[in-house]
Structure formats: C-alpha cells, structure tokens
Specification:
single chain, alpha/beta, 14% strand, 6-stranded mixed beta sheet
C-alpha cells in the first residue's frame, strides 16, 4: 500500500519559492532561524518540499520575509489547496503519490492542455475504452485491480461537468483515432463520446492529421496544467511505462508550452477535426 504523499508539486513550488526569497535577501538558514523560530534542518525540509505547511505558518514566514501581494496570496492559496482531502485519497491503496498529486492539481486547474499520440485522453475516455487499455497494459499482478483504475479515471472526469470547469485544449494524433481498443463497438462509442464532449464551451479539440506536412515536435504525450488565472503554478506531466514524470522547472515548462502551441497551430481546426472523427466512425 502506498503511504500518503509528503512531497507534492505544490509543496515543492512553495519550498523553491521560499528558498529563492531567502537567497535573494542574502540570508542563510542559520541567519533566519532566530526570526522564524525554526531550526535550519526544519527550514531546509520546508524548502525541499518535504514538509506540509499550515497556511498560518506559511503566512508567518512570508510576513517575516516581507513578501507582498500577489506572491503572498498565491503561495497561501497553494498551501490551502494542499490541505484539501479530496476524493483521490480514496485510491491511495492502488495508486502512487504522483497519480494522486496529479488528480489533486487537475481538480484545481484553471487550464489544461493535453497532447496525446496513442490514446484518447483519459478525461474523455469511456469506461469500456479505459477497461480495454487496462486489461492489455497492466502487468499480470495488477489485473485484479483493473476496475479500481477504471473507477479512478472515471472519477477524474467530474471536472468536465463541474460549475467552474477548467479550460481544456486537446491535440490528438490521428493515429489514436484509428487504433481500435476493445473492438469496433467500444471504439465507435468512444469516438462518439469524444465528439460530444468536444462541443462543450470550455473544451477545444484539434486533430493532428496524417496529412500534416509540418512537424510540431510532439514526440511524447503530456498534460500541461495551470493553477490559477493568471497561473500561480504550472507543471507538465508525462506518462511513461511505470508512472508519471513531473516537469516543474519554469524553462522546461515553457518549452512544452511552445511545443503545444506549435502543434495547435498546424492541427486541423475544430470543425475539421470533428469531421475527420465522423469519417473514422463511419468506417468502423
């Protein structure tokens, strides 16, 4: 069983920011410990994103550092979100901390950009499509838990229908639309679902067609999440065989954002994308 995560994307961002503030002021951990009434070891743990901070404790540190708005409020918001015990913790018996952290950030995101090469993105999958992926992709010792993974993915989809949903943009490679998962009927229902969801006001879908001569450089699938509008935290999550990689460095996140915008500019427009999907459905 996975233990509840101590570190998280939010905590690491808060910690990095506190370290930068301290260093910009030319202070060492030993120099600030007397004002903050914490040991250097405790402060180091906070700066490394390994210790949860109550909002009131964070506020005290920020006051002592002389931090003003909007940074003050941004960091407190992240600390408050970190304490939210959401539905995803009900899956900590089967999922790693990185997946739970992702679901938490996804729940609070103001904007999500998704680039997918091989699958229909998880937020728009039907249960049967997800089940087909799990049954073919999970190692044998995890097959008994397949339905738990399906339930987790379906639970994530509630953000699409909540009163204040995130702005969602999807780029899907045409190959993902042709790759039949679970048989023709499952795939047909999946593509119909994708078209229906893409017509929501906060959802925009573009397909990168086989006919595209421009190479946008989208070589790996990824999800770029922005917390806050304007963003107070941005991170990229990329899937790999055994879990998720989390990209938090600002320069690296910008590169992913640039790649997404490049792909968005060369993909089919939304109307043309839906027309292509309808064509693929007719051929199933």
């Amino acid at each position: 069983m996975w233990m509840e995560p101590v570190s998280s994307t939010r905590l690491r961002h808060i910690g990095r920011t506190l370290r930068k503030i301290r260093e910009d002021r030319g202070k060492t951990l030993s120099a600030v410990r007397r004002h903050l009434d914490r040991s250097p070891a405790s402060l180091s743990t906070i700066e490394n994103g390994l210790q949860p901070l109550r909002p009131r404790d964070l506020k005290y540190i920020l006051y002592e550092y002389g931090v003003a708005e909007p940074l003050f409020g941004d960091l407190v918001t992240l600390a408050e979100q970190q304490r939210h015990k959401g539905w995803w913790l009900g899956f900590k018996d089967v999922l790693p901390p990185s997946a739970l952290d992702y679901a938490s950030l996804e729940n609070d995101a103001a904007a999500i950009d998704i680039a997918e090469m091989a699958f229909i993105p998880g937020l728009f999958q039907t249960a049967d499509y997800t089940r087909a992926i799990m049954q073919s992709g999970l190692p044998e010792h995890q097959l008994a838990q397949a339905e738990r993974y399906v339930a987790f993915r379906m639970a994530r989809q509630r953000i699409i229908r909540k009163p204040d949903p995130p702005r969602l943009r999807l780029i899907i490679d045409e190959a993902a639309l042709h790759r039949t998962r679970g048989g023709p009927e499952v795939m047909r229902a999946q593509l119909i679902r994708l078209i229906e969801e893409s017509q929501r006001d906060h959802v925009a879908l573009r397909v990168l067609p086989f006919s595209s001569v421009a190479d946008p450089g989208l070589v790996v699938p990824f999800q770029l999440l922005d917390i806050g509008d304007p963003a107070i935290l941005s991170a990229v999550f990329t899937d790999h065989l055994t879990g998720l990689w989390i990209v938090e460095d600002d320069a690296a996140v910008r590169r992913y954002r640039e790649r997404f915008e490049c792909g968005w500019s060369v993909a089919l427009p939304e109307t043309g994308s839906r027309e292509l999907i309808h064509q693929i459905i007719s051929e199933l």
